[in-house]
Specification:
globular, 8-stranded antiparallel β-barrel, Lipocalin, 53% strand, disordered N terminus, signal, alpha+beta, DNA topoisomerase IV
Length: 124
C-alpha cells in the first residue's frame, strides 16, 4: 500500500503532460533540416505541398511524392530513384510540434529501425 501512495504523485504528474501536435501547420511550406554526419553539420532544405516534396542537399535537388496517412504521418517515395535503395518508401511521423519546428521519426517502410530529427519551418 505504501508503494502505491508513493507512486501516485508520479502518475498524476505524467498524466498532466500533454504533447503538442499541431501537425496540420507543417503539411506545406519551406523547411530546413540540420544534422551531423561524422561530426560535420549538414543542412537539407525542402519545400512541401500536399502531394510533393522537393529537397535540396549539397546542390542536388530531388523530388518525392507524398501520401498522407493522417495529419501527423506520411509516406515519401522518390519520383526518380537512382538505385534500389532509393526505390524504398520512407515512413515519416511527426512526434511533437512547437511554434516553428517539429520533431519527427523516420525509417524505411517495413523496417523497425527508426531515426529522429528536428525540422524548422522557414516560411509558408
Amino acid at each position: 500500500m505504501k508503494k502505491i501512495i508513493l507512486l501516485l504523485p508520479l502518475f498524476l504528474l505524467l498524466s498532466c503532460y500533454n504533447v503538442e501536435r499541431n501537425c496540420a501547420a507543417f503539411k506545406t511550406g519551406k523547411f530546413k533540416f540540420e544534422y551531423k554526419v561524422n561530426g560535420i553539420k549538414k543542412t537539407t532544405f525542402f519545400e512541401r505541398n500536399e502531394s510533393i516534396e522537393i529537397e535540396t542537399f549539397e546542390g542536388k535537388t530531388d523530388t518525392a511524392s507524398i501520401r498522407w496517412v493522417n495529419d501527423c504521418e506520411y509516406i515519401l517515395r522518390k519520383i526518380h530513384p537512382k538505385n534500389k535503395a532509393e526505390e524504398k518508401a520512407i515512413d515519416m511521423k511527426i512526434l511533437t510540434t512547437s511554434k516553428n519546428s517539429y520533431t519527427f521519426e523516420f525509417g524505411m517502410v517495413g523496417l523497425d529501425t527508426k531515426q529522429k530529427g528536428t525540422v524548422t519551418k522557414i516560411s509558408d
